[in-house]
């Protein structure tokens, strides 16, 4: 009964449009007061949340991605990829997804990926005859690769919450991330094949390819340095994020694209996003502590394992719940609310926590492109100056592909775990 009342109270606060951080935090404080427990536990939990070396990776990756965004690095990536594949059927769509994948490897953020590549790709694709809904849907879906292909901010937070290895989570995200990118590419090529309005682009000459590739080479090198340093054990994710920020600043300055004003704007934007994420994390930490005292996660785990003994049915139930709440909550809120509740049941079901993290992220990726609160839909709507209906119309086929990938992950867990645990 306590669990039902607490969940109902949280839903009521969210439906009243109370910001997620304050809904979680205020409800957690009330529960601690009602327990009763000395409220000095609240600042202790908040300080413990912020005093995390692993959490330093979040502002560093955000700062790095904002610097690259202000320096128009996405334009270089898109031009380089387009010079190599632009003449293929659906070449601009292929270039868009490849550019999203490359930028994902240095940003860790779906919003930054969608905004950066969308600014360049939307005018190019619409000018070449691609239908607007398809373009918007492609960019919204391509942006979601930013939270699956490492480094991924949601995977960092999942690792912190569950105390699982963040580098292993990053490795596990590579296979599904590349698989989704390939599915999007194939769909783009098939779409172009049956879309008569697609205008074929002439194959770029060798000089153009070399020039465009040289401009994009520093960014590709930056991505390789970040990911390579983590996987080779040279640096932790937080350390590699700090190094990535310094390298991004040096690269953009040497290219003559970084000014003092752009640096201030990038810092300010990163600070706003970091503050939002940290407030949600802090609120979720207090709420998680409170519901643990009330034995809510344990009660839900026991209820699930008592009524659902089959892991397949359990994952179907989890997927259904995540899709439902994805209509109302953005991805980080879903992760911070649901993971502490669901995680205790994983060991009882014999489910690998690394695999579950990837499965979870694929589902919250889907929530990013489903209305009414799909964040990537709003980003592309703003960048493309479009109606939300146009973006949602183009995004639904990609949402179906992402759900199909989640199903495939269940039947073929090696898609994530082969790279994570070694061949």
Secondary structure layout plus pairing:
Elements: H1 2-15, H2 20-34, H3 41-50, H4 57-70, H5 73-85, H6 91-107, H7 110-127, H8 132-143, H9 153-162, H10 166-193, H11 206-231, H12 237-254, H13 260-293, H14 296-307, H15 311-325, H16 331-349, H17 353-367, H18 375-384, H19 388-411, H20 414-421
Helix pairs in contact: 1-2, 2-13, 3-13, 4-12, 4-13, 5-6, 5-7, 5-11, 6-7, 6-8, 6-10, 6-11, 7-8, 7-18, 8-18, 8-19, 9-16, 9-17, 10-17, 10-19, 10-20, 11-12, 13-16, 14-16, 15-16, 16-17, 17-19, 18-19
Structure overview:
With 423 residues, the protein is mostly helical. The protein has one domain. The chain is 78% helix and 0% strand. It has 20 helices and no strands. It has helices spanning 2-15, 20-34, 41-50, 57-70, 73-85, 91-107, 110-127, 132-143, 153-162, 166-193, 206-231, 237-254, 260-293, 296-307, 311-325, 331-349, 353-367, 375-384, 388-411, 414-421. α10 (166-193) packs across α19. It is globular, with a radius of gyration of 22 Å. The chain starts with a helix and ends with a helix.
Shape: globular
Low-confidence blocks of residues: none
Structural class: mainly alpha
What share of residues are in beta strands?
Answer: under 5%
What's the quick description here?
This protein is mainly alpha-helical.
Keywords:
423 residues, mainly alpha, 20 helices
